[in-house]
Design brief:
The protein has a single domain, classed as outer membrane lipoprotein receptor (LolB), chain A, CATH 2.50.20.10. Helix content is about 10%, strand content about 50%. It contains two helices and 15 strands. Strands 1-8-9-10-11-12-13-14-2-3-4-5-6-7-15 form a 15-stranded mixed beta sheet, covered by helices on one side. The radius of gyration is 19 Å and the shape is globular.
Length: about 260
């Protein structure tokens, strides 16, 4: 299983759209970009996400911790207190105000079932623009030249998704030196840009690992909205106790199946 932060990334088929005298292989660039966060011993960050839709802003805050490829913990602080803990054996979702905890026995699931369950949980805290989106099966990568983004030289990479009914193409601008994703566009049928992301205040979180302090996501169109994600207190390879990734329901808490049944 891939690192949970990876989101079960899929390797794309190589299909360059432009070659120079010394061709740049897009699959290599994307692999190096993803490898910055692959194999980390631990990762911790505190998130504030503000979503603005029709003039109203909704704020969320949570802490994400990960240790190794299959253990993670999410502590929602606002607007509702919720704890999600996953390890190799089980997944817990606990809402203190409800006095209920849902338990999923991951060890009894097939790899495919396990991936579906974890993807559903992690979708709640998915942050577009942090990693280049490589799509699913049948996708093709191509290098489409260089550009300057925020004063930085960047490679423009495109990922064609022939089997995706919504997003046919994803464009990403990878910093040529730091390999952080500076900008991305999600394109639908007819070449219409559905959404964009922009990274700001890029910093070196650990030697050779650059991350943005803030990401802005814009969903375009009549039902569009804007999200601003701020990363605080990022820690890479810091010591995290194993007990963080186990859960024991407090006395009086009802243990239920997923979905509350």
């Amino acid at each position: 299983m891939h690192h949970v932060l990876i989101g079960l990334a899929t390797v794309c088929v190589l299909n360059p759209c432009s070659w120079g005298a010394d061709p740049i292989v897009p699959a290599d660039l994307v692999a190096r970009h993803l490898a910055r966060l692959d194999g980390l011993a631990t990762l911790t960050f505190h998130i504030e996400r503000q979503t603005t839709r029709k003039g109203k802003t909704h704020t969320e805050r949570w802490t994400f911790r990960q240790k190794g490829p299959s253990r993670f913990r999410i502590d929602y602080a606002f607007p509702i207190h919720r704890v999600i803990v996953a390890n190799e054996r089980e997944l817990w979702e606990y809402i203190p105000a409800a006095r209920k905890a849902a338990r999923t026995h991951l060890a009894t699931l097939s790899p495919k079932q396990r991936a579906v369950v974890l993807r559903g949980v992690l979708a709640r805290v998915a942050i577009e623009g942090l990693r280049f989106s490589s799509g699913g099966t049948g996708t093709q990568l191509r290098h489409c030249g260089s550009a300057t983004v925020g004063g930085r030289e960047a490679h423009r990479i495109e990922c064609v998704r022939p089997d995706d009914k919504t997003t046919r193409l994803v464009r990403g601008w990878l910093d040529a030196e730091r390999l952080v994703l500076l900008r991305s566009e999600f394109v639908g049928d007819g070449g219409h840009v559905l959404a964009t992301t922009e990274a700001e205040r890029v910093f070196e979180a650990a030697p050779g690992i650059w991350l943005p302090r803030r990401l802005t996501l814009k969903h375009l169109g009549g039902r569009g909205f804007k999200q601003v994600v701020t990363f605080r207190r990022v820690a890479i390879n810091a010591e995290l106790a194993d007990t963080l990734f186990t859960f024991r329901p407090p006395d009086g808490v009802e243990v239920v199946a997923p979905g509350g049944k």
